[in-house]
Amino acid sequence: MNDVFSNIIIGVISGIISGLYTGLVMSKYVAFAQHRLTIIDIVRRIEFGGTNGILDYAKFSKIEEISYSSCSLLYLGHTKAGKKGLLIYKDIMNTEQKFKNKILTLSELIDKNKKWQDAYLDIKPNIISILSLNIKL
Description:
mainly alpha, two-stranded antiparallel ribbon, 5 helices, 72% helix
């Protein structure tokens, strides 16, 4: 009878520990995914238009949030994703300046926008950071 009780206690304790660890791993992945999707969403919300290949209009809204999300990814241990986000942020800022100086074509901005989205859609989390017991969130 004592054996059964100790097996139940061990089973309950191991279940609680594995549940807590699983919750931690999922929380870390969700934090990564949230920042990744924030960056993709901001890039997709860049508004632009023109006629005959001439860029008449461009609106770069909330671009600074890319920097914020990228720094958050660096803090969470996703170095590759964070650095790539900061490079995209820098490229967008340079592209916005080119638009203001009227040296950017519509096709260039379309190509750049697609490149920014593709670059971030392919980014993967740092598995070691996700699976570690570090509680950075």
